[in-house]
Amino acid sequence: DQQVKQNSPSLSVQEGRISILNCDYTNSMFDYFLWYKKYPAEGPTFLISISSIKDKNEDGRFTVFLNKSAKHLSLHIVPSQPGDSAVYFCAASGDGGGNQGGKLIFGQGTELSVKP
Amino acid sequence: KAGVTQTPRYLIKTRGQQVTLSCSPISGHRSVSWYQQTPGQGLQFLFEYFSETQRNKGNFPGRFSGRQFSNSRSEMNVSTLELGDSALYLCASSAGLHYGYTFGSGTRLTVV
Question: Quick check: B52 pLDDT over 80?
Fold first, then answer.
């Protein structure tokens, strides 16, 4: 039962263009969402997050959009740079049971390749 | 400030043995979580500790256990190792969910 899904295993984008990474979830109790970037042999690096009370959060070139009715979130990277090439994971937290901390449910990841 | 430190970076063990992995969180972070990453299953939550108490637990067998010390350092232990336990084990610490979780570089465990 995969509660967080990233249906695109890979994405290739030209440098300077927009990268859009998508993520769907099934558990309506999730109330906090995060995006991580990961290089091989390293731990994930936190990028940006969004609370379920918002529908957009922006940080520099990174913007996350949340559509709660569709249970969908997306990460936009504008403009894309070759250094952005990595695996991107979305993660969700919060089960409504009061134990809000620590348990992140990750998607399978999308490998982004930004070509010069 | 120093990041999350995991030791050792690499480990090779034989089936049936046990292993202990260590994680030193960022100073001041009281929450420490552990994750297993494998090619087939992705990143899966093992457990989370906060102030020396296990606050959350994932769906792993009892062979996987952990603990947290008063200085917030954490260890996880896997007993009776199986070939399928070969994975990258990641530790993450946080000052609170809204600050995100900072991950260490992981321990690559190979069971032969």
Answer: yes
